[in-house]
Specification:
The chain contains nine helices and six strands, in the order E-H-E-E-E-H-E-E-H-H-H-H-H-H-H. Helix 1 packs parallel to helix 3, helix 1 packs across helix 6 (166-179) and helix 6 packs across helix 8. The chain has two domains: 5-80, Glutaredoxin (3-Layer(aba) Sandwich), CATH 3.40.30; 91-210, Glutathione S-transferase Yfyf (Class Pi), Chain A, domain 2. The two termini are 29 Å apart. Strand 5 (59-62) and strand 6 form a beta hairpin. By secondary structure, it is α+β, with helices and mostly antiparallel strands. Strands 2-1-5-6 form a four-stranded mixed sheet, covered by helices on one side.
Length: 219
């Protein structure tokens, strides 16, 4: 299918950025935003739930096709379009990539984004302040995840081997946000390989077009 894809969701979303990274890496024409079918789509509206039964983003629209869940979207884009492969051809390496996409979209997202980053972006404390107790409670989970990723990068430049894969597309937006927080140096003090990895990913042309300052005022 040659028509552009449309990514439904706000660009500041880490998972939206993951899909966007895959499109950029493979030079897939795409549009992006909280619109569908030429109409504005309010998050958690009936129209949104009609596209995603759990009211999440991103949603991929490609012609008459609709697809949800970031790992599935990224695998589809890699298979359906020409361009650099984002999944290894070898069976075991591909299974490792699938494993890491699941780990990242599940456990890592919960630790880094849901429990930690969102407290800074959308603070829930009195008067819109950051809940320091919530941050402190979440911090051990963040450290555990960063240590796990540091170990995974012991021998390779990317999470699964020497090439950028879907796993890196999912990891990069979360880590980019985390590394940009005030005081993030303390979190990354014991993970030098991970720090180098973040800079390596940020230096990719695709990332320079995706990992931009978020516009939190968008839909």
């Amino acid at each position: 299918m040659t028509q552009p894809v449309h990514i439904v969701g706000p660009q500041f979303s880490t998972f939206v950025r993951s899909v966007q990274l895959c499109c950029e890496e493979k030079s897939i024409p795409y549009t992006l935003g909280t619109e569908a079918g030429g109409r504005s789509l309010a998050i958690h509206s009936p129209e949104h739930y009609a596209l995603h039964p759990f009211g999440k983003v991103p949603i991929l629209l490609h012609g008459e096709r609709r697809l949800i869940e970031t790992p599935s979207i990224c695998r589809y884009l890699d298979a359906a379009f020409d361009g650099p492969a984002l999944q290894p051809a070898e069976t075991w390496a591909r299974a490792q990539t699938d494993q890491w996409t699941g780990i990242l979209a599940g456990y890592v997202d919960q630790a880094l984004v849901r429990r930690y980053l969102l407290e800074f972006v959308f603070p829930k404390g009195e008067g819109g302040t950051v809940r320091e107790d919530a941050v402190a409670d979440a911090r051990p989970g963040v450290v555990k995840v960063l240590t796990l990723l540091e170990e995974q990068l012991a021998e390779e430049e990317y999470l699964v081997g020497g090439d950028f894969t879907i796993a890196d597309a999912i990891a990069a937006p979360m880590l980019d946000y985390l590394a940009g927080l005030p005081g993030a140096e303390d979190l990354f003090a014991e993970t030098p390989r991970l720090v180098a990895y973040i800079e390596r990913v940020r230096g990719r042309p695709a990332a320079s077009r995706v990992l931009v300052a978020p516009d939190l005022g968008r839909g």
